[in-house]
């Protein structure tokens, strides 16, 4: 599977069943550096956001860069409602088997910088519904923060994306499409540095399971302490989806 192992059997915590909810403050066992700043605390927000220092309850996404100074990564920022369906899991881990898999993957994508992970935060949105849904549609995606204490990476995995928009963001309650679609990217918090994954806040974002910057459909990987993509050619629009 594209996804790293997750769920209660992996020792994951789960977010409360609450619309626009968030985890408690997660104190990181290894501080995480994002765009040159080091953070001790993150929040896993139900609406597809991992934020540093403060939770994010906003459900309709705004394009980056944000002007309000909030540093966060948006694996899939949209109006999730886990009361209607799905679960949001997270754990910090030093499991050697998982870290070996992560290390091999990142070293393959960034071969000039051999990487041996010593820690990871694995966050998974498992078949989550959208606000106002009258369907059974769910999205499954994952974000992994990882480091060797020198380099810091974020992996985004997209396994099954069936909707883009909640009803309160002008989406269709039956299809989960239209309105203001999900946003995917990175906001440094300094209103200057940011990255938007192609297709964000357009209907094309539903195709993110077929896109990549590391030639693995559905996976995007970035070094985020000193923000870098891989050397792969930038995504190209091809038959209405990014490859």
Indicate the percent of residues in helices: under 10%
Alpha carbon gap, first and last residue? 20 Å
Structural class: mainly beta
Question: Per the principal axes of the C-alpha atoms, what is the gross shape?
Answer: globular
What is the mean pLDDT? 93
Radius of gyration: 16 Å
**SSE string:** EEEEEEHEEEEEEEE
Q: Bin the strand percentage.
A: 25-35%
The biggest beta sheet reads: 6 strands, antiparallel
How many strand units? 14
Strand order of the largest sheet: 1-6-7-8-9-12
Uncertain regions spanning at least 5 consecutive residues? 232-243
Q: How many domains, as an integer?
A: 1
| Total number of helices | 1
Protein name: TECTA protein
Domain NIDO: 75-227
GO biological process, one term: cell-matrix adhesion
Biased composition (Basic and acidic residues): 10-20
């Amino acid at each position: 599977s594209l996804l790293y192992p997750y769920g209660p059997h992996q020792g994951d915590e789960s977010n409360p069943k609450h619309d626009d909810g968030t985890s408690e403050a997660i104190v990181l066992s290894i501080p995480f550096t994002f765009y040159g700043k080091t953070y001790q605390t993150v929040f896993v927000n139900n609406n597809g956001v991992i934020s540093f220092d403060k939770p994010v309850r906003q459900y309709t996404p705004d394009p980056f860069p944000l002007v309000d100074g909030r540093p966060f990564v948006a694996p899939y920022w949209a109006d999730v409602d886990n009361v209607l369906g799905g679960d949001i899991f997270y754990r910090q881990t030093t499991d050697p088997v998982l870290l070996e898999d992560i290390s091999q993957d990142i070293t393959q994508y960034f071969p000039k910088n051999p990487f041996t992970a010593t820690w990871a935060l694995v966050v998974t949105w498992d078949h989550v519904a959208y606000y106002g849904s009258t369907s059974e549609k769910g999205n499954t995606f994952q974000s992994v923060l990882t480091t060797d204490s020198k380099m810091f990476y974020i992996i985004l995995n997209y396994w099954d994306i069936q909707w883009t928009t909640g009803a309160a963001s002008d989406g269709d309650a039956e299809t989960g499409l239209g309105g203001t679609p999900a946003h995917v990217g990175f906001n440094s918090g300094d209103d200057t540095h940011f990255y938007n994954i192609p297709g964000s806040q357009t209907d094309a974002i539903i195709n993110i399971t077929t896109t990549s910057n590391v030639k693995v459909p559905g996976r995007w990987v970035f070094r985020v302490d000193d923000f870098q993509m891989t050397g792969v050619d930038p995504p190209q629009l091809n038959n209405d989806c990014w490859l």
